[in-house]
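Posted in: Structural Biology > Protein-Ligand Complexes

Title: Requesting predicted complex, glutamic acid in pocket

I'd be grateful if someone could produce the C-alpha cells for the following input. Sequence and ligand are given below.
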Amino acid sequence: MASNSGNGTGADRPVVTRFAPSPTGFLHIGNARTGLFSWLYARHFGGKALLRIEDTDKARSTQEAIDVILEGLDWLGLEFDGEPVYQSQRADRHAEVANKLLAAGRAYKCFATPEELAQMREEQRAAKKPMRYDGRWRDRDPSEAPEGAPFTVRIKTETRGDTVIEDAVQGTVKVKNEEIDDFILLRADGTPTYMLAVVVDDMDMGCTHIIRGDDHLNNAFRQLQVIKAMQGVEDGWDEPTYAHIPLIHGNDGAKLSKRHGALGVRDYRAMGILPETLFNYLLRLGWGHGDQEEFTREEAIEYFDLTGVNKGPSRFDMKKLLNMNGNYIRAADDARLARLAAELIGPQADVALLTEAMPVLKTRARDMNELAEGAAFLFKQRPLEMTEKAAELLDEEARQHLAQISARLSSESDWTIEPLEANLKAYAEELDLGLGKLAQPLRAALTGQTTSPGIFDVLVLLGREESLARIDAQAAG
Ligand code: GLU
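-- Reply #1 --
Done. Output follows.
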C-alpha cells in the first residue's frame, strides 16, 4: 500500500475522505468528478471513502433528489463505505458544538436585530468598506440585551495574523484573519448554519482529506476557525488536508452551465454513454498521468493522487467524450452490450441474436442509442416500414434488380459473407454497374433504412429465409 506522507497534516492517520453532495434533483457531472476523486484517493491509500448527503435544505432535499445521487454513484461504480450520513439528522450535534464553543468563550451570543444588521451593512456600503459583521456583541455582556431577546451564536474568530492553508491542489493560500468576520454558527431559531454543519460532520466522520470544488475554498478558511477553536474543547479536531479542485468549464472556456448541454450524470446515461466511459472521462478531466488517455478502474486506483490534479480549470469536450465512448463500446463485452441494446429496442429484441450481431454492430457506434438504432432492423416485422429516403431508393429499376438478386441468392447454398459477396459482385459486373448501385436498394429492402452495417453482414445476420422474404417483399413481381 502506498504511503500518504507528504500530503500535509494527518500524514500518519489512515486516509478518510468524504463526498458531500447536496440533493438538488440531479448529480452534476462536476460533483460526480469530485466524488470520483474523493473515492479514488481513499481507495488508492486503502482508506475509507465516506458519503454524506447534505440535506439541510428541506425544500430541495426530497427522497427523489437523494435517490438521483445514489443511483448516479451506483451507476458509476462508486461504492462508498458504510451507510451515508444524513446531515439533517445531526442538527443536535451541530448545536452541541456551538454550545460548547459558547461555554468555552470561543463563541458568543449576538443580539443584533436584522434591522440593525441591515443598517450596519448599509453604512459599510456607503463608506465603501468591506461588508462584514463588525463584532458589536463580541465583548458585550449578554445582560445588556433586553430580557428574552432572540440571539444568534457567532464564532469568535482570530483577529490577528493569517489563516494559511497548504492546499494539496492550490498550493499555499492564505487569508488575513481580520477579513474573516464572526460568522453565525446557530441561527436565532437554534438551527445550525451550513458552515457549522459541514465542519462538525467532517470532524465527526474523521475525515483526513477534504477534496471538493474550489468554489468552497473560501469556506475552508472559516471552517478552520471552528476547528481551531474546538481543539481546546474536544479531542479529534485535527486539521484535515484540503484539496480544492478547479471547476469544469465548457469548450468555450466559460464555466460549465446548461447552455453547454447536459449537466447531469443521468443525462449522459440517457445519451447512451457507458459508465466506464464517464468514469474515465471525468478522471481525465482535471487529472493526468503522463499521456495515458484510458485507464481501467484498477489503474485509476493505482495511479490516482492529488499531485496529478491540474491547477487550472478543465474543459468539457463532448466530441472527445463520444469518441472515447466508441472505444469503450468496442472494448465492451458483447453479451452485456446486447442486454443494454435490447432494453433500448424493446420487447421484440432477442438478446441472443444481438449478441451474435454485436461484433458487427458495435464497430461504428459512438453511443448506445446509435447502436440500438443500428440493430433495430434485425427485429422489424414484414412488411418493413421504410424511411422516406429508403422508399425513394426503391424505384422501378431498383425493384427489377431486387427480383434478379433474389433469384440469384436463393440458389446460394453457403449463406456466408464471401459467397454472397462474390455472387452480388458477379451480377454487378454483368450489368456493368458499381456494387453500390445494387447495395443501396438491397439495404433499403433488408433494413427499411439507408444506413446499416455492411450489406453482407446484414444478409448473414438476418439469415437466408428472412433476407429473401424481405427482398421479395420489395421486388418487382
Ligand atoms: N454540499 C456541498 C456541495 O454540494 C459540498 C460541501 C463540501 O464539500 O464541503 O457543493
